[in-house]
């Protein structure tokens, strides 16, 4: 014996049957011009990349956020102001990272007495390095520490070591090729702010997992960074600015991952230039390459 259906169920069944018959009678719409489908996508992408520049004004200092760079030539490219605009997808990734940083800072503000300041400028003079740390917070022991907030994709978050308590940076398991730059950046902030302790906070962009690594200012790591930057400054401080030579072991002409050359934004230009070149020569060749 079948299940007895109530009047409501019968009405709903009839509606579905009528809708099915109606869909079969309606022909498929003709394809519309592509603009009607993706105009919003294009508009959003254009808004992200509209104001991207190919060159900034030359600077008289290095950026603290770039102190993990191991190539003196790349550092001089950066001081010259050479930039490579990013595609819209990458620009969206950056914006998502800024949002995660702001979310963490907003949460820190909710903890009474925790947050000191944010985005405060720090400077070193020999050679000149300038940066802005993310946060300065007060620990339960009334010690000021500097923190840097990093948002990373799940694939890279899963490669992080276990979070740890206070260690010198050269003793941290973060001291590998990928995370070395973050240690250099935080270490530079600590020396610039004349503080001895800090932390790196990593948050997974996809599921908001978090790891925090507590770190001590490290003289050995700082000496490595200063040595590279002082060599680069010998060229960057000239008038006009000159490119430093390609360091030993680096080769921008190789397609393999050669000490970072493979991923360097300056590579397409670097490999076309002589051992050292002045600002105007670099600008002229870049204009020629971008126009082809």
Q: Per DSSP, what share of the residues sits in E-state strands of 2 or more residues?
A: 15-25%
Overall strand count: 9
Strand-pairing-aware structural class: alpha/beta
Helix fraction by DSSP (H/I, runs of at least 4)? 40-55%
Write up this protein.
With 292 residues, this protein is α/β, with parallel strands linked by helices. It folds into 2 domains: 62-228, Lambda Exonuclease, Chain A; 243-291, no CATH class. The chain has helices at residues 7-25, 34-49, 72-80, 88-109, 154-157, 180-193, 219-236, 267-270, 279-291; strands at 62-63, 115-118, 121-125, 128-132, 135-138, 144-152, 167-168, 197-204, 210-216. The strands form 2 sheets. The chain has a 6-stranded mixed beta sheet with strand order 2-5-6-8-9-7. It has a 3-stranded mixed beta sheet with strand order 1-4-3. Helix 3 packs across helix 7. It is globular, with a radius of gyration of 27 Å. The termini are far apart.
Secondary structure elements and pairings:
Layout: H1 7-25, H2 34-49, E1 62-63, H3 72-80, H4 88-109, E2 115-118, E3 121-125, E4 128-132, E5 135-138, E6 144-152, H5 154-157, E7 167-168, H6 180-193, E8 197-204, E9 210-216, H7 219-236, H8 267-270, H9 279-291
Parallel strand pairs: 1-4, 6-8, 7-9
Antiparallel strand pairs: 2-5, 3-4, 5-6, 8-9
Helix pairs in contact: 2-4, 3-7
């Amino acid at each position: 014996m079948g299940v007895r259906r109530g009047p409501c169920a019968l009405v709903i069944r009839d509606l579905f049957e009528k809708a099915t018959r109606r869909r079969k009678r309606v022909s498929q719409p003709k394809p519309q011009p592509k603009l009607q489908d993706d105009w919003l996508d294009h508009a959003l992408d254009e808004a992200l990349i509209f104001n991207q520049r190919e060159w900034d004004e030359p600077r008289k200092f290095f950026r603290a956020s770039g102190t993990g760079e191991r190539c003196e030539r790349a550092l001089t490219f950066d001081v010259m102001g050479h930039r490579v605009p990013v595609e819209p997808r990458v620009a969206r990734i950056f914006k998502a990272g800024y949002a995660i940083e702001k979310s963490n800072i907003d949460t820190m503000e909710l903890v009474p007495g925790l947050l000191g300041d944010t985005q405060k400028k720090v400077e070193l003079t020999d050679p000149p390095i300038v940066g802005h740390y993310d946060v300065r917070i007060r620990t339960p022991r009334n010690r000021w520490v500097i923190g840097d907030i990093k948002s990373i994709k799940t694939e890279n978050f899963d490669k992080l070591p276990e979070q740890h308590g206070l260690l010198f940076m050269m003793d941290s398991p973060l001291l590998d090729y990928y995370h070395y730059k973050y240690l250099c950046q935080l270490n530079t902030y600590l020396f610039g702010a004349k503080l001895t302790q800090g932390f790196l906070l990593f948050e997974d962009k996809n599921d908001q997992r978090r790891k925090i690594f507590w770190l001590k200012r490290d003289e050995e790591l700082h000496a490595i960074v200063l040595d590279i930057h002082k060599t680069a400054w010998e060229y960057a401080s000239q008038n006009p600015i000159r490119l430093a030579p390609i360091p030993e072991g680096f080769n921008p002409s190789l397609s393999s991952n050669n000490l970072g050359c493979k991923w360097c934004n300056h590579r397409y230009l670097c490999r076309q230039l002589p051992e050292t070149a002045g600002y105007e020569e670099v600008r002229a060749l870049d204009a020629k390459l971008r126009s082809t």
